[in-house]
Amino acid sequence: MLLRLAYLTVTNAFAALRLLPVGDRDKDVEILALRHQITVLERQLGADRVKFAPEDRVFLAALLAPLPRRVLRRLRLLVRPDTVLRWHRDLMNRRRARTCRLKRPGRPPTVRSIRVLVLRLVRENPNWGYRRVHGELATLGIKVAASTVWEILKSEGIDPAPQRGSTTWAGFLRSQAETLLGCDFIETVPLTGQRQYILAVIEHANRRIRVLGTTAHPTAGWVGQAIKNLVMDLEDAGCRARYLIRDRDGKFPAIIDEVLADAGIQTVCCGVRIPRMNAIMERWVQSCRHELLDRTLIWNERHLRHALRQYEQFYNTHRAHQTMMQAAPLRAVPAPITDRGRIAHLDIRRRDRLGGVLHEYQHAA
């Protein structure tokens, strides 16, 4: 349209220059001839109307709009004078709309800090609907509409409050994990042939493992002393455990229930042949066997105690856990590296280390 309009402007400008040397008599004759041609064209069209392109409307509106209405009525045109004026009004309205248009149409986006606060309130209070969240924001002095809170929840794919309020077994057990401990014995046979019994306890909340000891003779005195040491360690760590889950093994004497009861911990025995009641502890037993006992030649009790101590430290401070988003019980997930200089330094160190390994391999070959 712009190219067509520019073409019309240039051609009519040259036509106006051509009319400058023409006399008034010749102009009057040309005007009469043009008016007669318009009359013939209207007679041939009949009830049909002449269709003007958008660039033709713009050009005619810009050319004829400055003329008064009485002058327009005397002109012989294919359209009425009111139509020409309407074309001019539409042209001005489009120009004003284009100049007043916002750079970003629609409502302004919600501040990111408010979005984060809304999502946090909904996550920590699953029974709250968007109107309750709107009320809490108003209490904090944050002025947003209730529909804004609803739009935030809808854009994040969060269901309404009645559906979010339902509790799953996974969520229920996760909410009770801080008060639960798991305990079990592990049997292994070192190279000496003397069977060893390992007593370990795991915290359900953070998956921290505590190896209480290993012995060839798990007597009542030895187990009771190990449980006493566990109670003191829990008090020093500020653990709020209230229940300890164990199986019905005969190696657990009755004295440990009394020691735990004095510390405010109740013993819960698993059902007969139901190891899934202590599934978290059983899962650690499997990890310990696959990662340590099945891969290491254990010589004697002393060697076993040393290996268990090293594995306990590795499990609590280094090994990644999928249930904890790849964190460890005593180690959080490190923050991502965003400094380009540090990334380049790490790449250089990795490349130098790889070069050293290849050099040693070639030298050995």
From TrEMBL:
The record's Gene3D superfamilies line, in alphabetical order, gives: Ribonuclease H-like superfamily/Ribonuclease H
* Domain Integrase catalytic as annotated: residue spans: 158-337
Q: Which GO terms describe its biological process?
A: DNA integration
GO MF? nucleic acid binding
Which is a Pfam family this sequence falls into? rve_3
- InterPro entries linked: Homeodomain-like_sf, Integrase_cat-core, RNaseH-like_sf, RNaseH_sf
Task: Name it.
Answer: Integrase core domain-containing protein
